[in-house]
Amino acid sequence: MPDLPQPRRIPRQSRSRALVDSILEATAHVLSERGYAGTNTNLVAERAGVSVGSVYQYFPNKDSLISALHERHATEMHAAMEAVLAGMPSQGLRAQLAAIVRAWMAAHQIAPELHRVLEKEFPFFDAPPDQSPADQSIYARVHQLLEAHRDGLVPQDLSLAAWVVLQSMESLIHAAIIPPGTPHPIEKTEQAIIDMLTGYLHGGQQPDSR
Amino acid sequence: MPDLPQPRRIPRQSRSRALVDSILEATAHVLSERGYAGTNTNLVAERAGVSVGSVYQYFPNKDSLISALHERHATEMHAAMEAVLAGMPSQGLRAQLAAIVRAWMAAHQIAPELHRVLEKEFPFFDAPPDQSPADQSIYARVHQLLEAHRDGLVPQDLSLAAWVVLQSMESLIHAAIIPPGTPHPIEKTEQAIIDMLTGYLHGGQQPDSR
Amino acid sequence: MPDLPQPRRIPRQSRSRALVDSILEATAHVLSERGYAGTNTNLVAERAGVSVGSVYQYFPNKDSLISALHERHATEMHAAMEAVLAGMPSQGLRAQLAAIVRAWMAAHQIAPELHRVLEKEFPFFDAPPDQSPADQSIYARVHQLLEAHRDGLVPQDLSLAAWVVLQSMESLIHAAIIPPGTPHPIEKTEQAIIDMLTGYLHGGQQPDSR
Amino acid sequence: MPDLPQPRRIPRQSRSRALVDSILEATAHVLSERGYAGTNTNLVAERAGVSVGSVYQYFPNKDSLISALHERHATEMHAAMEAVLAGMPSQGLRAQLAAIVRAWMAAHQIAPELHRVLEKEFPFFDAPPDQSPADQSIYARVHQLLEAHRDGLVPQDLSLAAWVVLQSMESLIHAAIIPPGTPHPIEKTEQAIIDMLTGYLHGGQQPDSR
DNA sequence: TATGAATGAGCTTTCATTCAT
DNA sequence: CATGAATGAAAGCTCATTCAT
């Protein structure tokens, strides 16, 4: 399990691209429906309508499938974030964070079972999650966001603040969405997440905040 | 697999108790060193110095080992929390939360690898985490803590607030400690976690918060 | 599997006798309800209300349990035969065979599932069935019966005839009773068995033999 | 375990066919030499010169191996019966039954140990023997035989008669051949079986039937 | 004698991975 | 490149049997 989940060959031809996509799609399906323990490469191949051999043409091993799925998810989250921010260029940090939280919550609600598997079962592959390019981009973007509003922030170490914001945002969203999910109304939970982030970032300078 | 974590027989004699403990200890060791995928019942038995049969005398299956380990961890965290709070009866909420965070951080630093496996690889058994009695106790205690300081709190729904506080506290601690851990100094991270919780609970009512 | 199913010690004390009986009874129950594959010594011991160790006090191994059960059954069948014949001292062979068939059919109908297991799963232990004392007695009695009516018999080799009669009688009764049993009414089947035996033994000389 | 005997995939290519055959052959060998208890899938695979995986490619589980063997045997017996009858189109029932008995006796003498296992150890899988297509065909053929000679028969219910004839014929042949076998000369036993069947069917009114 | 915790060989079955076609 | 039959290591779990108490 030491080799990194790098696709064996970078597929550029559209046919290969489609193949990779359908394999990934199949992986997501099987993973959602049967969990990690119930997922195996033959099943994925069958579901994708290709042979096992073809799966191994593009993915060095079973775990790389999940790795790729995780990266795809991170990429989608990054895109969602960019899309949302592009639509609200010069607004306040609170509004921007709120928009991100809402967008991510919405995105996760589409396939909660898959995200459960991805979140709960993925990390155990030795792949350090921070190696993911998409994760890096997300981090960078949040960092940039904080810098843009540096003046109003309580935390001074923006790297640390970005890390804290991202970690708690992600884990709260996951906890809220992933089965069994929040015991509370989803909108209230969403608001609480936003409040928490804002409280941290803007938190203390208010004189009445004891 | 829905009703696992019940030991096959309730061990009352000290010999049985010791056996169960050594099996659990062995599980923790093997899990830490080899991860879930590399852990198997024969290995655990060997490490515990007993036969596989004995393992199955007390645990219905492999997963129940991890279940039990998880419960043990939750129980320890609950105890740590109680111990810390007992030593500071009538202090402010911030101080109390800070104490809990520090105690838990310290506790997790003892066997970070084990916690990585427990946190990251355990949840994939369908066992809903909320079924755990120890987890319930922890939640109840935090809820009680918030109630005792209800007057100074911004969030009004204390159930929700307890859920948010617990989720973010736990996930941030895990993210900080579990390999690869924070890229930031541990004390600063710790402080940031405390700030976040306090910011949420005491923080953001300010309309001018931009 | 080479050692013969001889009880370790011949129990003479009444307490031992009762123990052996309850173990045998438990074996019969478990065997009936779960089949050979589902039967194990611990289950039998539990059902009998004794410890496994006690089972091994009286039976050298698992198979000897079934052996003993088989022997018990054969003994019962022998007794039933003797009882029936004792009540009809000087009647015709046909009537006597008919009485035996009816008695055995009735006896087998009490616990068909157990007999299924006994008949179908027992023979596979290397114990040669003819070693059984009770089986020997049954054979001897049938042989004696034929001798008593030697004059009216077509077959001249009475040893062979006794073997044929016993084999077909037993197998037809088993086939009739053991699930799924005959597809025909039990009385008609019973009559057919009697007809077959009589047809063989009396062959053709009786014009009234229908 | 109710619907076993279906091979996982229907082998059409000659290579697969050969594989299935060699696995079955290996099963027969191992079963003959070591009995059911001593038979395991790894042994079968080894003997067949294939890997365990290949065994499971064509047979869903261990028991289905024996199921298949049983069906193969029934098919062979059916074929033997047809072959024999084809060679004696318009002869008397007695002659035809005699021919079948002789053919089956001969067939069983080839691998008595295997038949012992098949007959004695097989039925304990819940597979109802009557489900077997080959068994059905055999029954149908015997029924047809009786119908063709209906006029000379004492039994009027031909279904019942066919059942009785088949049951006793098979069980007597098995008892004669399967170790430890008859204590009587094989030819005399064979003749006795034929006499029994004829005695039942013709009731003995034929004075020439000795 | 009775107990039942402990043993551990051994079995069935799965599935990631390969490679001849 | 694609295929999918074949591989075989490996793992979970059972249960007949023992023996210290």
From TrEMBL, chains A, B, C, D:
What domain of life is recorded for the organism? Bacteria
Where's the DNA-binding part? 40-59
Per UniProt, residues of the HTH tetR-type domain are 17-77
Q: Does the keyword Transcription apply?
A: yes
- Family annotation (InterPro entries): Homeodomain-like_sf, HTH-type_TetR-like_transc_reg, HTH_TetR, TetR_C_15
The reply on keyword Transcription is: yes
Q: Which UniProt keywords apply?
A: DNA-binding, Transcription, Transcription regulation
Descriptive protein name: AcrR family transcriptional regulator
> Taxonomy-wise, where does this protein's organism fall, top ranks first?
Bacteria, Pseudomonadati, Pseudomonadota, Betaproteobacteria, Burkholderiales
